[in-house]
């Protein structure tokens, strides 16, 4: 037994420390450490056992001492307690990732691009695909394409043991399920045989991927339908039937309509005809002496060709080309360029469906018309006509002359004519023809001029009535018959100038 107590050791069972001097005077023991904890030596009470508040420990100090974990070198450190476990169905309840996708089925027959919404439920990792309907889209209003379920991503290959067509997929047959990592903007997801392209998502989905996986902010991909390129409408090739304007109407409507005409031009240029004399360019000797009259109708831009009949020439004469438009050689078939008044100058070569005509002469009215519309036609054509008429000498509007004996007789006959009666008769004939809508089909004046080679202004009576029969002129009319009698000079000769003037205006 120890006789002296050792300072700082507690009273342990089995050990006694007897101090005979202090047995009668017991005292409380004040220790600085106890069980590894520091103890304060500052007295807590004063005189009269009143507590000393300054020397007392506060509640904060007591909490720190109670919660303080000593650092022990002879034991393993204590692990930090685990956080409270919260299951997924509680933590992610009512939290859904929403993706906007498109299914492009345009490669198949009658396929189209359709939009869908993919929902991924974080609570139980299930997937749902909903259809997006538009007004009058022709689809049945089924809201859901794929009901909410866990979607397998990779399956085990059990086709060797059991046919896949009747295989019911269970959890044991699935290697991998679809998770949130499999869905992202700009990626394609294949679900149950359909490939969906994800082009957008909502704000909650963007924040979830950025916080959970550290993905950058997803871009918005434009998948809107671009308008198709504008295709220039072109007419099919010309088939050769009718005019091009008529054939083009079959491409504009199921029931073709008559092409529109320039009514203003037809009213202004009605009954205005430009006449030319032409010869045929041909290596055949019999064609050298043939003469043709080309008439250009300003109202419709059409051309007719007439060959005056010549006795014992071997050619019947008459209408050589009916009224039609003549395209220039080398022009496009689908958009041809037609001959116009500016192309008919003296010496011009006009190709008409493989036949070539050379302009030899023109009517004086052609020069007057071109001079009045000089801004619309080339100056070379006008100058060509002026030079031609200047070389011809006196105008045909004046009375031509032949021999001296005939000139004297013509002058005597002309003095005897009653000019006032002639003009009145011509006016009456013009009014009657205008009221009956009579139109001469062909250049009658040029026909008389070809027969009048000497430019006398007279033709034989037999030839005169032959031309009237060719042009179907109503010679049986009383007024026209009277005009013929007034234009008759001598025996068997008729002055055709006044007769043509009465019928052409």
TrEMBL record:
GO terms for cellular component: axonemal microtubule. It comes from Monodelphis domestica (Gray short-tailed opossum). Residues 93-213, 270-374 form the DM10 domain. Pfam families: DM10_dom. PROSITE patterns: DM10, EF_HAND_2. It is found in: Cytoplasm, Cytoskeleton, Flagellum axoneme. Residues 392-418 are annotated as: Disordered. Residues 439-474 form the EF-hand domain. The lineage of its organism: Eukaryota, Metazoa, Chordata, Craniata, Vertebrata. Residues 392-401 have a biased composition (Polar residues). This is EF-hand domain containing 1. Keywords: Cell projection, Cilium, Cytoplasm, Cytoskeleton, Flagellum, Repeat. It comes from the Eukaryota. SUPFAM superfamilies: EF-hand (SSF47473). Its main location: cytoplasm. One of its GO terms (molecular function) is calcium ion binding. The keyword Repeat applies. Residues 406-418 have a biased composition (Basic and acidic residues).
């Amino acid at each position: 037994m120890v006789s002296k107590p050792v300072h700082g050791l507690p009273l342990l069972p089995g050990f006694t420390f007897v101090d005979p001097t202090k047995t009668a005077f017991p005292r409380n023991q004040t220790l600085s450490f106890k069980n590894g904890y520091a103890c304060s030596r500052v007295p807590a009470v004063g005189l009269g056992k009143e507590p000393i508040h300054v020397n007392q420990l506060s509640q904060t100090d007591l909490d720190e001492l109670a919660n303080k974990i000593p650092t022990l070198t002879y034991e393993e450190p204590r692990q930090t307690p685990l956080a409270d476990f919260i299951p997924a169905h509680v933590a992610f309840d009512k939290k859904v990732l929403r993706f906007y996708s498109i299914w492009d089925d345009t490669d198949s027959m009658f396929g189209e691009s359709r939009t869908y919404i993919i929902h991924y439920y974080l609570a139980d990792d299930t997937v749902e695909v909903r259809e997006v309907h538009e007004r009058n889209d022709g689809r049945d209003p089924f809201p859901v394409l794929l009901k909410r379920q866990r979607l397998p991503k990779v399956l085990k290959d059990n086709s060797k043991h059991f046919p896949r067509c009747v295989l019911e997929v269970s959890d044991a047959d699935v290697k991998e399920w679809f998770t949130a990592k499999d869905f992202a903007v700009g990626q394609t997801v294949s679900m149950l045989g359909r490939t969906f392209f994800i082009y957008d998502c909502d704000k909650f989905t963007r924040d979830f991927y950025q916080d959970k996986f550290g993905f950058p902010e997803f871009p918005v991909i434009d998948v809107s339908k671009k308008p198709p390129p504008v295709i220039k409408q072109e007419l099919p090739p010309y088939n050769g039937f009718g005019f091009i304007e008529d054939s083009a109407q079959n491409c504009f409507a199921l029931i073709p309509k008559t092409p529109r005409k320039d009514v203003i031009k037809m009213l202004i240029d009605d009954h205005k005809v430009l006449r030319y004399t032409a010869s045929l360019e041909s290596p055949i000797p019999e064609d050298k002496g043939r003469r043709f009259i080309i008439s250009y109708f300003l109202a419709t831009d059409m051309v007719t060709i007439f060959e005056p009949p010549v006795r014992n020439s071997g050619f019947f004469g008459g209408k050589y080309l009916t009224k039609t438009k003549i395209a220039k050689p080398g022009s496009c078939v689908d958009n041809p360029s037609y001959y116009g008044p500016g192309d008919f100058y003296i010496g011009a070569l006009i190709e008409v469906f493989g036949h070539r005509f050379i302009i030899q002469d023109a009517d004086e009215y052609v020069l007057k018309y071109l001079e009045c519309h000089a801004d619309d036609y080339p100056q070379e054509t006008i100058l060509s006509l002026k030079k031609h008429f200047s070389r011809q000498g006196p105008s045909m509007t004046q009375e031509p002359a032949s021999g001296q004996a005939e000139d004297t007789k013509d002058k005597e006959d002309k003095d005897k004519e009653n000019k006032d009666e002639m003009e009145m008769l011509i006016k009456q004939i013009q009014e009657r023809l205008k009221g009956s809508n009579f139109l001469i089909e062909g250049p009658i004046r040029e026909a008389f001029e070809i027969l009048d080679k000497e430019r006398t202004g007279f033709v034989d009576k037999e030839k005169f009535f032959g031309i009237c029969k060719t042009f179907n002129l109503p010679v049986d009319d009383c007024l026209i018959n009277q005009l013929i009698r007034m234009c008759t000079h001598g025996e068997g000769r008729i002055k055709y100038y006044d007769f043509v003037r009465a019928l052409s205006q």
